[in-house]
């Protein structure tokens, strides 16, 4: 059976001739003659194959996709596009199309097969280390002011209109993206916003789409296990700002990477400076001239000066200055995508809560502390999240957190230091340990905690995340704020290769119910 992702396809895809594809992309061929063969879909994962598909078999980091060609053919693939190494693995009797780098062709071929669906929608792509999800939802809210139906793709979900499914990752594989663009169009959506991760850019997942507008939030230390160093990470992000991928860009220039991107990008770029008073404001097209972080924690008011010098009163519906930045970027992106400025400002200011992004799970009152779930999982994001919560916390700030396994080890002690510096009470626990020993990840965090707080006062360790949340609720008083960071909306926790159903919000609510019962 085709996987849930494989089923996210248009109901009425065009049938394309394999020989037309060969001609359009100057492919070499081997195996049986494909003249007369048609295909109606493209897949890169054998489990996603539907009858009538072209299977794109790429050399992966772990395995060559052509190893699964027989499985793909058994599921109904009519031809295989691969490289010379892969060709030898395709079962005899199946037409083989050859390219030097089939991964780079997966998106363009899928777009071609589906009649360039991205060209029939207004498309916005958002990249950067932090703030992609938030900005994407803000942009979607603004697009909905003028588009009756929209789609939004990213870490949290794949949504078309009111229908959503869980997302396997931040940016889906190239053929899935093209299928979603076509499905969105078929279902009447006229605009689509997607997060674009650095992995996606490095692995060509958005090739085949030329976005109307792309946005950049910031670049901070993350994913160096994959990109090697900050320069490599920056280069991956910059790919989105090329003429093949985007018509125009909007770049937040608060950090040096944004400044460099705005200077170097070969497409027209509008710059946005969101830290009022910073020297970069002088040269930016759009400037946040002042911002008032709301002490009620509900959001912030800010003034945005446009390139014509006019100042507009705007609002961010989420707390903290980072969300002023996300809201300002979203307004400019949506405006560049055709939404009138006033409508964009108004819609972003009233955007709904985003799952796992500063999500208020329990409101302060009736003896309960304010309980928040946030996705911050980098030192910078954690710093900003804790700084945003401090002004809305009359009592102590209680932080529950960990750090991912099988990912950048260097950040663990730094996460420890940040927590110890900015929170009052720490409960150090597990995030997604993956194949690593959870205790050693916690130990690395605690090493950083000790640098700042050698006596480990008010520092606790919990061997399960659910227990950590229960501990935090027990420790917190009504004036305190409990913030659980790192996993946000995630519906699972990966331990020793197994994905367990797990969600911070649900656990928070269950822990509160448990405490209620105990005190009833
Ligand atoms: C580093 C990375 O992104 N790797 C992705 C990449 O792996 P790969 O090319 O090495 O693939 P592989 O596992 O060697 O397999 C090779 C080929 O065989 C195919 N295959 C494999 C097995 C099978 O049974 N059938 C089959 O057809 C695969 O689909 C693939 O095309 O292609 C695979 C197939 O699409 C992805 O599953 C895999 O994502 C892995 C699971 C992953 O964890 N990716 C993360 C790091 C990621 O992409 N994250 C970013 C967000 C990061 C962030 O900002 O936080 C994201 O966009 O989600
Ligand atoms: N503009 C920003 N600058 C720095 N940190 C931010 C910004 N926006 C949000 N954050 C912090 O980063 C966390 C992640 O935010 P969000 O989910 O919007 O980013 P993301 O780019 O989608 O992350 P990921 O790629 O890991 O899914 C938030 O919970 C918040 O703490």
From TrEMBL:
Carboxylation is probably crucial for Mg(2+) binding and, consequently, for the gamma-phosphate positioning of ATP. Its EC number is 6.3.2.-. The gene is murE. It is found in: Cytoplasm. This is UDP-N-acetylmuramyl-tripeptide synthetase. It comes from Cellulomonas iranensis. GO terms for molecular function: UDP-N-acetylmuramoylalanyl-D-glutamate-2,6-diaminopimelate ligase activity. UDP-N-acetyl-alpha-D-muramoyl-L-alanyl-D-glutamate binds at residues 46, 170-171, 197, 205. Residues 39-86 form the Mur ligase N-terminal catalytic domain. It holds the Pfam family Mur_ligase. The modification N6-carboxylysine is found at residue 237. InterPro entries: Mur-like_cat_sf, Mur_ligase_C, Mur_ligase_C_dom_sf, Mur_ligase_cen, Mur_ligase_N, MurE/MurF_N, UDP-N-AcMur-Glu-dNH2Pim_ligase.
């Amino acid at each position: 059976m085709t996987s849930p992702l494989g089923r996210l396809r248009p109901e009425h895809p065009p049938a394309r001739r394999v020989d037309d594809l060969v001609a359009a992309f100057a492919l070499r061929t081997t195996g049986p003659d494909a003249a007369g063969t048609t295909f109606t879909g493209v897949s890169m994962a054998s489990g996603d194959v539907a009858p009538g598909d072209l299977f794109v078999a790429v050399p992966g980091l772990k395995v060559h996709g052509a190893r699964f060609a027989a499985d793909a053919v058994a599921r109904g693939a009519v031809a295989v596009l691969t490289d010379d190494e892969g060709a030898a693995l395709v079962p005899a009797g199946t037409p083989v199309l050859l390219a030097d780098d089939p991964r780079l062709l997966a998106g363009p071929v899928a777009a071609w097969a589906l009649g360039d669906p991205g060209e029939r929608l207004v498309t916005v792509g958002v990249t950067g280390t932090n703030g992609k999800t938030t900005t994407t939802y803000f942009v979607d809210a603004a697009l909905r002011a003028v588009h009756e139906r929209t789609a939004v793709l990213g870490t949290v979900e794949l949504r078309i209109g009111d229908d959503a499914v869980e997302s396997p990752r931040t940016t889906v594989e190239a053929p899935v993206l093209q299928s979603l663009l076509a499905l969105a169009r078929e279902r009447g959506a006229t605009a689509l916003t997607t997060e674009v991760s650095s992995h996606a850019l490095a692995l060509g997942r958005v090739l085949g789409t030329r976005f109307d507008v792309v946005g950049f939030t910031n670049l901070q230390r993350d994913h160096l296990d994959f990109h090697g160093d900050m320069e490599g990470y920056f280069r991956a992000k910059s790919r989105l700002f090329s003429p093949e991928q985007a018509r125009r860009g909007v770049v937040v220039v608060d950090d040096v990477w944004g400044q460099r991107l705005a200077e170097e990008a070969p497409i027209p770029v509008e710059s946005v400076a969101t830290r009022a008073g910073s020297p970069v404001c002088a040269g930016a097209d759009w400037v946040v001239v002042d911002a008032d972080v709301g002490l009620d924690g509900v959001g912030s008011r800010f003034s945005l000066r446009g390139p014509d010098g006019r100042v507009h009163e705007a609002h961010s519906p989420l707390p903290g200055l980072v969300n002023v930045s996300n809201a300002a970027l979203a307004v400019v992106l949506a405006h560049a995508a055709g939404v009138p400025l006033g409508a964009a400002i108004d819609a972003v200011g009233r955007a709904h809560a985003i799952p796992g992004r500063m999500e208020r799970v329990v409101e302060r009152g009736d003896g309960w502390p304010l309980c928040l779930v946030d996705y911050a999982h980098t030192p910078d994001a954690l710093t900003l999240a804790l700084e945003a919560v401090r002004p809305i916390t009359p009592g102590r700030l209680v932080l529950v957190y960990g750090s991912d396994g099988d990912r950048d080890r260097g950040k663990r002690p730094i996460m420890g230091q940040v927590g110890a510096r900015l929170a009052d009470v720490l409960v150090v626990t597990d995030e997604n340990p993956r194949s690593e020993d959870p205790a050693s990840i916690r130990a690395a965090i605690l090493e950083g905690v000790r640098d700042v707080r050698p006596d480990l006062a008010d520092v606790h360790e919990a061997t399960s995340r659910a227990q950590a949340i229960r501990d935090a609720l027990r420790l917190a008083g009504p004036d305190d704020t409990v913030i659980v960071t790192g996993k946000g909306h995630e519906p699972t926790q990966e331990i020793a290769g197994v994905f367990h159903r797990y969600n911070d919000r649900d656990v928070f609510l269950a822990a509160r119910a448990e405490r209620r019962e105990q005190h009833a």
